Amino acid sequence: MRVLYVSSEIHPLAKTGGLADVSNALPSALSKLGVDVRLFTPGYPSALEAACQKRVVAVLDNVLGFDDVRLVRAVTPDLGLPVWLVDCPALYARDGGPYLDHNGDEWPDNALRFAMLNHVAARLSLGETPVAWRPDIVHAHDWHAGLLPAMLAASRDWRPASVFTIHNMAFQGNFPARALASANCDPGQFHTDGFGVPGEISFLKAGIHFSDCVTTVSRTYASEITTPEYGCGLDGLLRRRGGDLVGILNGVDYGIWDPREDPLLAQRYSADDLSGKQACKRYLQEAFGLEIDPDRPVVAFMSRLADQKMADCVLEALPWISERGAQFALVADGDKALEAAFRDATARNRDVGVQIGYDEPSAHRLLAGADILLAPSRYEPCGLTHLYAMRYGTVPVVRRTGGLADTVTQKDAAAAMEPSRTGYLFEEPTTAAMIRALDSALTTFRYPHFWRQLMLNCMSADFGWEESAQRYLALYRQVARQADGPGARFTAAISSSA
Ligand code: ADP
Ligand code: GLC
Fold first, then answer.
1. For residue range 268-325, what is the model confidence (pLDDT) as tens digits?
2. Domain housing 405
3. Are residues 188 and 291 both part of a single domain?
């Protein structure tokens, strides 16, 4: 089984969120199952710098009007996974993030930047580059790779089957319809049953419509996105895909996220000996300017500061957290107004410590040193931070939605000290509901015997990738077996959503 895995973010080449973690860990788990999986990603400066054993394997002319587009073959620095990078400096060599400039504004040519990624991946997949390797499956991720299934579907020759994974419905890659020409897509596919939405083209919609199979990253999110509340306008299309829409839960790379081996911690620890966690807590309290007191619970929040993550409600809850005798520590960035508001909160409240910015070592230290992780979320396709937190014995308080609902165990909300819990769940996306769940957690914290049991429950929960990687492999086999030949696959993609 040969799989081309196309993702705009791959840790440690480029990362803005969980997509990058998944795009490192899932391919690694698949290759352990014998899959010949090769990554494909934009040649951002950070990615070209971090990748090892780089070699230019093709120079492509006339891709969307660009000449000398270099296809660079390399391996990832940590796991040694094979990766192709699209080196097109005019589109990718910029100071800023993969999607936004330094002011937080989207790059104005994002349609073209990601159309480039899709075009080069399509050429490689269809054997139109000097690279001899051809995939059986193209696995495209999120809107950035959404045009690829459409390009493959338009092929009149043999083509690989396509799997499209949705990591977040809210980011759709919608651009004015005139972008169609610069993205050089087949106008025949641009209709409201293709990738057109009124007045616009949608990369995400193209991926959902034209792929042979659609997956998302938890079972609950797979069902939620077929409703108007969570479907972001594409719920009708998702309902029409019916059984072609599958939820496969993300996993955790315990090679990176494990307190027994984490080199970034003040002291390592395990379920057998939790003394190192006390040292990590002390380090955290000191680093965040909080009173050093092992008996005061530390509530952590680590996230993109975005509407999705209910960061506004977390901000609103800070006075209550402090009055309740707890401390609060945050590592986050995103919305500038929220960043400023959290900074202000530290000036007013000595129980609040914040670190604004994106910093991997701080992320590990926060999860190790805290007692509780708040992961509220208005919606959450899967969510990884709470899974990481659990392995560090940090108990999650989460909203019952998406992957959070599928991974945190609570039988009875009213039984704060229920012995089999792995966290605290609440239903409504409100500050009051979140506070009630947090209150139960803080009550239990006062009973060291129960709290220790909870920590051990969390630490022993296993969210490794093995089972989910097996499910992807089974899906690849099934999709590859389906229709043979271009006409059949093209027709299948259209009719399943017509
Ligand atoms: P999302 O992808 O929606 O942002 P996830 O929970 O799936 O949410 O993944 C978030 C990823 O980003 C995790 O790897 C988490 O550790 C990381 N992360 C989030 N905020 C920060 C930050 N400020 N600094 C470092 N890592 C962060
Ligand atoms: C998205 C989602 C998050 C998920 C991640 C990886 O960014 O918001 O819930 O864990 O992708 O799939």
1. 999 999 999 999 999 999 999 999 999 999 999 999 999 999 999 999 999 999 999 9
2. 275-460
3. no
